[in-house]
Amino acid sequence: MGFASRSVSIMRYRVKGDVEGSFWDVVDEGVKKYAFREIVGPGEEVGMGWVSVEDFTDTEFRSASYVIGNYVALSLRLDSVRVPTKILEMRLKQESKKLLDESGRQRLSSAQRRELKDNLRETLKKQVFPSIQVFELIWDTARSVVYFGSLSIKARERVEDQFKKSFGLTLVPLIPYLRAEEILSSEQAKDALGKLKPSLMAP
Questions:
Q1: Residue ranges making up the domain that contains 59
Q2: Separation between Cα atoms, residue 137 and residue 147, nearest integer Å
Q3: Tens digit of pLDDT for each residue in 127-136?
C-alpha cells in the first residue's frame, strides 16, 4: 500500500552522513544511476532500483520529477523471478534422459549436468512472469528524515543498501529510544534514559 492509502505501515529513518559536492546534483546522479533495470543477465533473479512514485514503469525522472519542494519522493521497485523447483527438476530429468538416449551413455558428468541445469533455468526464466513489489519512500531533506512504506525486514535491508549506494548516506532506524535521545534536552533526562531497563509486560 502507498502513502496515499487509508492505512499504511511506515518505517522512519534518520539520515546520517555528508554529501560530497552539490547536494541536489548528487541526489540526481544517484537516482538515475540506480534507477530500476529489468532482469536481463544470465544468473540474475532479482531486479531492483528507483522508479517514479506515481508510475512504477517510469525510470527516466524527467525534470527531476522526484523533487517536491524539499522532499524527494521515490519508489523502490523489486522484481523477482523464481523458477519453481519441481518444474526445473522435471525438465532436468527429461532433458538428461534425452541426452543419454542420444549418446548411448549411462550417465552425465557433474559438469554436464550443471551446465544443463543452468541452461534450463535461463530458458524457464523467460517463461515466468516476475513478482513485482513497489515500496514508497519520502525523504524530508530539510529534517534529514526518511519515511519508508514497509516494516518488512528484507525490504528494509534492501532500501538501506540502495540508499547507501545511491547517495553515500546511511539510514538509521529511528526507534523510540533513539528518538528520545534526540528530543531530550537536559543531561539529567538523558542519564535517566540510559538507565532504563526493559520490562516484562506479561503477567
A1: 11-80+130-186
A2: 6
A3: 778 889 999 9
